[in-house]
Amino acid sequence: MNILELSEQEIVRRQSLQTLRDMGIDPYPAAEFPTNAFSTDIRSEFKDEDEPRQVMIAGRLMGRRVMGKASFAEIQDSKGRIQVYVSRDEICHGDNKDLYNVVFKKLMDIGDFIGVKGFVFRTQTGEISVHAQELTLLSKSLKPLPIVKYKDGVAYDKFDDPELRYRQRYVDLVVNDGVKDTFLKRATVLRTLRKVLDEAGYTEVETPTLQSIAGGASARPFITHFNALDQDMYMRIATELYLKRLIVGGFEGVYEIGKNFRNEGMDRNHNPEFTCMELYVQYKDYNWMMAFTEKLLETICIAVNGSPEREIDGKMVSFKAPYRRLPILDAIKEKTGFDCNGKTEEEIRAFCLEKGMEVDETFGKGKLIDELFGEFCEGTFIQPTFITDYPVEMSPLTKMHRSKPGLTERFELMVNGKELANAYSELNDPIDQENRFVDQMKLADKGDDEAMIIDKDFLRALQYGMPPTSGIGIGIDRLVMLMTGKTYIQEVLFFPQMKPEKKMPQSTINEWEEIGVSENWAYVMRKAGFNLISDIKGEKAQGLQQKIGEINKKYKLGYEKPSLDEVQNWIDKANPSAEANASTES
Known about the structure:
5-stranded mixed barrel, BirA Bifunctional Protein, domain 2, alpha+beta
């Protein structure tokens, strides 16, 4: 990287880096720094009557107040922040005071990692602090952190732009309070989920992420190519069909927490790469699964928030069991007055069109009912609600309802207007399953690119016999959103998918060289604000020479100054029409 591509502060920090090395100080030492305390523990365990506690702490330098021979610094470790008192004569043990006067005061920057050895005390203002006796630079920061500053109650330099926060999560975690806590709560969700499933006797497993058939859900897959087999493969859209194979193989219950991938849109509730938990248990049905799920979510909410209630979008949502159970066709009738029960595909499509919905001929009966529910019902269920008994057209992997013809034993759990979980009494009749796969292929032939593909190996597994089984899939990202009260899925993903960064258009170094500007001077041109060659068209040779000369001097580059004729030649070549006129006149 050319130094002129850096900001003013970055250049100064690199100069400090070199100065440290010239002084014999390694800015990135390899030796262990054996910390024995965290900021939060130091404060919570401090007692004025105790003997001063000796500690070794480390963290980022987040603030510094220099007051002559003594200063105060603020260190941020993995748990919080604590004040450090730094005295020149305490950390500099001989006549050489450079560690304080030069290194601490001038060469250390906000964001540097430092280690402190000293003892704990209370300052005259009552703040529990660490009195430094030794100070060590552990890692030099070359980019300045966006530290929020306050003046007259107004905050400046806030790092609150969502795109920047999500793209540079590492900075977001350092400077914005509460962000790290969200992800610690996410860890609690996963830890509690595993604990409940493990204690129930179920086995955590891993299944393929690359699959030859994208099965187990209705979704558009990502496609890649397996060179060794010369075969197109799919990133999995669900783990369902492989987990059911394990039930066939004799496991009592299996679950997987892993990534799924769906090549669909991104918005506040969807990320194309997402985490899902799927659980399958033999000899159970969807009624058992509803009872198990509501107790599971109540347990998780208590573990994360200390209570089964959580405020979400200004509304108090209770995860305390039991939850309401409502058949999907009753839900649609309740919200629209239209009874889908017994209606043909054409009748349901006509009602959708009457309501101004965008539906077309590729939509089968199940898709139309799904669209109706999404349009008029889904967003209205704030408290946890089991929507049950879906039509068979919507549920190609679900067992037929034992008492309601045309419906299946399936539920979706709605919370705060969004789907959180999807569960079935699993279809284990291989002939019925094959017929439903065939119906799905007919939908694909009509243009439905989310229809399932026939998985012949899964059908073969079913033919060996699968016991009665209930299964569920829970979206972990949405679950964490609910448990932390976050509105956007990006807030609970460390690194959500983002559009490519916008880059300022720039002429390449080769393009600058084509008009006679050397590589060194091309970087100077950019530093002067001329990103494109066309930007210098309106410049006067003398003015341009002065601008780039000032940068050459400011950064002590030592480049040989170009003559006025050379600069004029650059301008002429940047403006071909003017150059052509000049040639004609001569």
